[in-house]
Amino acid sequence: MAFDSSLQLPRERTLFKLGAVFSGLAWTALVVSIVGLLYGALIGLFVLAARALFLAHVRGNGVRVSERQLPEVHASVKAAAERLGLDGAPEVYVVQGGGALNAFATRLFSRRFVILLSDLLDQCQDPRQLDFLVGHEVGHLAAGHLRWSTFLLPFHLVPWLGAAYSRAREYTADRCGLRVAGDLEQAARALLVLAAGGRVASRADLGAFTAQHSETGGFWMAALELSATHPYLCKRVVALQQVSQAQASAGVRRHPLAWLVSPVVGGLAGGPAAAPLFAVAMIGILAAIAIPNFLRYQERARHGGQAAAVGEASAAGITAEERASLEWVKQVRLQIEQRERQNAKRAR
User: Looking at the whole model, is its pTM more than 0.85?
Assistant: First the structure.
């Protein structure tokens, strides 16, 4: 069973094509520079090592979900993988998150993982809420979001477009979660769990919460969201309702000036919104190091070529006296040229 492409947000497909073209050009430009390729490889190795070390920490300190360990979570993950057309369930670990309510999917080469923070499990008041959250993360894997994450890294640094692509993927994953949960209300309340915790989510008025989305077009809220990787939770609930009721998506019009300042405002807000600016700063630092080194390398190569030419002349049998004679002829010619230039000036 393959992944159902109808779950994918149409806007995500368009942004993916733009991202593939831009990232392909960016990686090509990097490869043609030997120094750039070296630094790119070092950055790639650093990211790979950091991810491997993080997963080593999770596997050593977290609780691995299995048929014997947290069987209800294992059953939810297995059902989500089957429902979404993923070939085999991912490895799932539960770790202590210090009160944070979150979950995420990741991978290392061909191995796929879903990490659930323990407080999130505790806050889910209904099994279908957990099914939605698990389906959301498995949806990222089934939709291939992590398969292209490294290749599309340059595109994620593009203001507006990179963040828009990330938000589109979140809407796609929410659709996956809704299909796995099979219940619109509990899927919406699962998002409310992320917003305010399980007790509030069970008592909150969904209509009042979704009404908040009309305020997201204001200057400050729009400026922040335009540089964020995740849409506002109230907007995600509205999107689920529209998908469930087969309604056309009616977005909130954003303040025009928010588009102009969103990269700066998002960076000042910190968190995921600051990641593109941080990455750009890192690239600038690396370029400041790489470019001077590359220029020095070219200079050394040029001098090395001149030294080789002198060595070849010596090898050809030119004696020291012959070289001195050639140097004297050169000096005489320079003096003649200088004298001719002076005479030309006087004639004017």
Answer: no
